Amino acid sequence: MDEFVNEAPAQGRVPDGALGITQPVSSGRSAPSWAEVLVGAVAAVVGLAPWLIAGARLPLQNLWEGGIPVDAPVVLLPFSQYKVTSIFALLVVGGALAGVAARVLVSRGDGRGSALRVGSGLLAVQLFAAVQTVTAVGTGLRGGRDSAVYLAGIGGGLACCLLVSVGAFALIALAPRAGALVGLAIGAIATGLWLPIAFIDPTGSTSAPMWLLRAFTYALPILVGVAIAWAGVRTVGRAVSAMASLALVWLAPPLTAAVGNALGSRILARDLAGMLDYGVGIFRQYATDATLVREPLALAVAVAVVGLVGRGVLVRRSELAPRTC
């Protein structure tokens, strides 16, 4: 059974087997409902913050009515075939942050209703951002089949990113530690993409030193290693989730690189088969290059091992410490 603490349940508390936490029998909550909704909304805004701070101006649209707009409209998400991975990062980071906050509230005994209220705040903000963005883009594109396909394609990708955000939130907030680990790994992927947006330039108009870009690539393996150390590997489910998380460390960067390059190719914009073939080629090349794969995997494993060993030492010390009545 998943545990947040190693001691037996205290008097007046019963274990919640589904969540792997202890929860008071009483129905009293430490936080009001409106505050829990606000937590989810704030998490969503934090995820969107890099784009909002940069001005939130609609990126270049090749199909805009009347050509390139002089004053691009404000949109809450960077709707563009060149910004699909940015949309993923801005939404999923918010979902992961909300999930962590909700899990903390549930672990304090506020009940699963707290997680649902946090999730409602998250979803309200992210749905509003998605609808506002699609509406603004849809009204500005020129008519025709190309515009309809573009709006449906990028809009569909945006909807998928929204579903991933909600899924990551649900796993982190409510699943046992094995499931929460997968949700945290998804959040780590998004964080690795979010950091360059937050600390370099979300519009892509300026370049960054290579050392800084390289430093950001370490975020994914480090966060996954920390998540594995938190979840542990003592059960089959947790061990399988740890292996799945390490697989994401291996496969997620090639996948995001393939998607970004394939969708961002103007030459292949009207050749879906060629775009797919190009993306598959990039993914295969990246995922099978040992020099690119070895270092992040080794770092994730090292962080996880150090965390697991340190956690075990702390547990043994607490067990051996003299107890007072």
Please, could you describe this protein's structure?
Helix content is 70%, strand content 2%. It is an all-alpha fold and 325 residues long. It has one domain (15-320). It has a two-stranded antiparallel sheet. Strand 1 (13-16) and strand 2 form a beta hairpin. Helix 2 packs parallel to helix 4, helix 3 packs antiparallel against helix 4 (145-174) and helix 7 (219-231) packs parallel to helix 10.
Number of helices: 10
Overall, the morphology is: globular
Residues in β-strands, percent: under 5%
What's the oligomerization state? single chain
Low-confidence stretches: 1-27
Q: Describe the biggest sheet?
A: 2 strands, antiparallel
Q: What would you report as the Rg, rounded to the nearest angstrom?
A: 22 Å
Biggest sheet, strands in spatial order? 1-2
Total domains: 1
Distance, first to last CA: 27 Å
